[in-house]
């Protein structure tokens, strides 16, 4: 599947966001009702055939709907895809020079093709997971310190 971004502005964007929010509630409810199933069957309204999907696909749909409901652009990138430094920087929402600094520091795995760097989407997502975890831990530490000092 190729990476693509969809802009969510204007009246159509608002209608799409509202439809996505409604669909998200229904998908979350469906997943909660079928939490033990690894494969889920859904019947589309007005159709006689059931649609059978892997649970992971339905969970991914819920994630996409959550972003759409918030009016954010959505990109789908296979985990094995190799990205340019600019594409990787865009996905992390950082500047290209900052990303290159991360690559040189060994924070994100990459390979060189000729003179160009290529970053696997999987490596980029792993970096983001580690970075998010470190941020959560720092926030927890600050909260604990504030509680110790009686500030909250």
UniProtKB/TrEMBL annotation:
The lineage of its organism: Bacteria, Bacillati, Actinomycetota, Actinomycetes, Kitasatosporales. One of its GO terms (molecular function) is DNA binding. It comes from the Bacteria. This is Helix-turn-helix domain protein. InterPro entries: HTH_17, SinI_DNA-bd. Residues 83-130 form the Helix-turn-helix domain.
